[in-house]
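Hello again, I could really use a second opinion on something today. I've been puzzling over a protein and I'd love to understand its fold better. I'm sending you its amino acid sequence along with the backbone structure tokens. It would help a lot if you went through both lines with me. I've dropped the whole record in just underneath, so have a look.
***
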Amino acid sequence: MSTGDVSIDAAPHNPAPPVRVLLAEDQVLVRDSLKVLIDTTPGMATVGEAGTGAEAVLLARRCRPDVVLMDVRMPDMDGIEATRRICADSAGVRVLILTTFDVDEYVYAALRAGASGFLIKNATAAELLAAIRVVASGEALLAPTVTRRLIGEFLRGPHSAPAGRDLSGITQRERDVLTLVGRGMSNAEIAGHLHLTVGTVKTHIGRLLAKLPARDRAQLVIAAYEGGLVTTPPAK
């Protein structure tokens, strides 16, 4: 290299820390398969395995994962109660529920308990990994079509009346946005329906999260239902 050349070292590359996942699944074969999938995926790592709901609560407190992949039907303590306890005492830990459509009422209860979303058990490996990333990023995993079916089934079912939710602190436009969130619309769909930009919709949702208050979009769906804004099954 000549004396006139200048050597500039490239900026050091600091990869983002992996998404830390706690597996809460009582079936060993399923749990082992999930562990292999996650641990062989770049940017992800399992940090604990729980075979019961009680173990999941203890490990969430000890390991501080980013995401708990939680089965609904767990021995000792079901996934709903485990989710409630984890969300209550492990700030920053998000719960992704694994379920089937025949237990929709349990999913609703899990969302009320603080879960950030749910995934159907027949999802592909790619869908599972994408779901973990979405929840870890702080978003709620509520695909519009799945939300419509979930809320629709709940409204049609023999469930108890929703708990009252005071919505007096939100504006009329925020109420409009919340109603459409509760009906399972995406930000783009809400923007088109209300003739707003997607950015404006995001701003309204951010204000709703702060005012209600709610952890994420999943909790806004619950607020819309409990506030009486969603009273009929959403359109398919």
Remarks:
- DSSP finds ten helices and five strands in the chain.
- The beta strands are 19-24, 44-50, 67-71, 94-99, 117-120.
- The two ends are 68 Å apart (CA to CA).
